[in-house]
UniProtKB/TrEMBL annotation:
InterPro entries: ARM-like (IPR011989), ARM-type_fold (IPR016024)
Tree of life domain: Bacteria
Protein name: HEAT repeat domain-containing protein
Length: 250
């Protein structure tokens, strides 16, 4: 019988590696192979009255490929966890990044090769929250690393929703995902982001990334121009995208 972990045990389970070194929640999610002997104990944390600890335990379990953790994360999405408190404040502006962290754990769960149907369903639900809720970039990167092109309409809707709510940079983050799956649609949307260069952060860095998935003379021309942009982040991304297009030609 598994006993309820003490506060000290919870700290060890969620924040330390197998040598007992304190590495933090993010690194514990990446332990490879996952420490199987910890899983029953971390599952017990899901019974904890502190919802913040439950959230962290679910992230760890899902990242380790555990379906119980994945199901708990989906429950948090369905019950709108963000309305019950602040669980993962962004390090720069304090926006709650709770669903972006969930997206990352779901991505890591996918590396186990299990529950592709659940992963797609959860990503679709997260995209439904995109715009009203904040996402730093982990959902974007999770989708870019997936083969879930059936989500393209949901990505498109998320971009339009974020734009309508006055969040152009947030909207632009998903342009590379849409460009990978629906390049012609993404190219039409890109026009929406021209003339917004006064914004910080600048959506053009995501435009430059998206153009790397759109192999047309027009894209190459825009990328060549952006490669000389005064903003180093934009110019560097444009050069990376040009290199990506060149590799495809080889």
């Amino acid at each position: 019988m598994v006993t309820t972990p003490t506060p000290e045990e919870i700290h060890r389970l969620l924040y330390t590696d197998e040598q007992g070194n304190e590495v933090g929640l993010d690194e514990v999610q990446l332990l490879d192979p996952p420490p199987e002997e910890r899983i029953p104990l971390v599952r017990e944390i899901l019974r904890n009255p502190d919802e913040y600890r439950v959230y962290q335990a679910a992230l760890v379990l899902a990242a380790w490929g555990d379906d119980v953790g994945l199901e708990k994360l989906e429950e948090f999405i369905d019950t709108r966890l963000h309305e019950r408190g602040e669980f993962s404040p962004n390090r720069i502006d304090g926006e709650d990044n709770v669903y972006d962290e969930i997206a990352y754990a779901v991505h890591l769960h996918g590396l186990s090769g299990k529950r592709t149907d659940a992963r797609e369903r959860i990503f679709r639900k997260l995209l439904g929250l995109y715009g009203p809720c904040f996402f730093e970039s982990k959902l974007k990167h999770a989708l870019l690393k997936s083969d879930l092109a059936s989500l393209a309409p949901d990505v498109h809707a998320a971009i339009e929703r974020a734009l309508a709510l006055g969040h152009p940079y947030l909207a632009s983050q998903l342009l590379p995902v849409l460009a990978r799956w629906e390049p012609s649609l993404a190219q039409r949307l890109i026009q929406t982001f021209s003339g917004r260069s006064s914004l910080i952060p600048d959506p053009m860095v995501n435009v430059a990334e998206a153009l790397g998935y759109i192999d047309t003379p027009e894209s190459r021309s825009v990328l060549t121009r952006l490669s000389r942009h005064a903003d180093e982040e934009i110019s560097e991304q444009a050069r990376r995208s040009l290199e990506m297009l060149s590799r495809r030609k080889r």
